[in-house]
Amino acid sequence: MNPRRLLIACAVASLAGSALAQYKVVAPDGSISYTDRPPLAEPGKVTSLRRGAAAASAPAANDGALPFELRQIASRYPVTLYAGANCAPCDNGRQLLQQRGVPYTERSITTEEDTAALSRLSGGRTIPSLTIGVQPLRGFNPTDWATYLDAAGYPRESRLPRGWQPPTVTPLIARESAPSRAAAPPAAAAPARVDAPPPADEAASAPALRF
């Protein structure tokens, strides 16, 4: 074969392979490779090539144990629950996700910094809130949550492995380590609203999917 044609054929094959890949891996020596399976690599060395990856939350630590189909859905549209303490609607939302078998990550909303970050992320200060991919849902509405989970492709009956548990709950805003000397107590945080009902015009029309 003509060397020029061989080079062109190799380039086309390389582009096709990277187009089908889902992850970009940077090795310690700086070399780059592509794969369609989640590789075992150090944090920060793997970049997901899937849509919505930039806005997605970190996947659960035991996502590798999920069935292949469910792992694919969770990689494309990761689910994150934003909840607080002593919040009955938050408990209801958590129960819905667990009964349906949706792998999710939970972020706690306890400080003013958490509440402000939730407002920027979801457009409101309501808990519980849910994100499916980049689609925010404010307040617990089982019908709305089920509709968006259906649209994302999550199965209606649990397919989680026996014994699967969500990752440890972490604050939405990471806490800094305590200083060596005593500091003044922080100002009281403005609490997040719990499951506030949506405005009338918002409830009248279903929001468009924004996965």
Give the secondary structure arrangement, pairings included:
Elements: H1 3-20, E1 23-26, E2 32-35, E3 46-48, H2 68-76, E4 79-83, H3 88-100, E5 104-108, H4 112-122, E6 126-127, E7 129-132, E8 135-138, H5 142-152, E9 170-171, E10 193-194, H6 200-204
Parallel strand pairs: 4-5, 5-9, 6-10
Antiparallel strand pairs: 1-2, 1-3, 4-7, 7-8
Q: Structural class, from helix and strand content?
A: alpha/beta
Gyration radius from CA atoms, angstroms: 21 Å
Topology as H/E string?
HEEEHEHEHEEEHEEH
Give the biggest sheet: 5 strands, mixed
Q: What share of residues is helical?
A: 25-40%
Question: Can I get a quick summary?
Answer:
The chain is of the alpha/beta class.
Structural features, described:
With 211 residues, the protein is α/β, with parallel strands linked by helices. It is built from six helices and ten strands. A five-stranded mixed β-sheet has the order 8-7-4-5-9, with helices on both faces. Strands 2-1-3 form a three-stranded antiparallel β-sheet, with helices on one face. A two-stranded parallel sheet has the order 6-10. Strand 1 and strand 2 form a beta hairpin. The radius of gyration is 21 Å and the shape is globular.
Key traits:
211 residues; alpha/beta; five-stranded mixed sheet; three-stranded antiparallel sheet; 17% strand; disordered N terminus
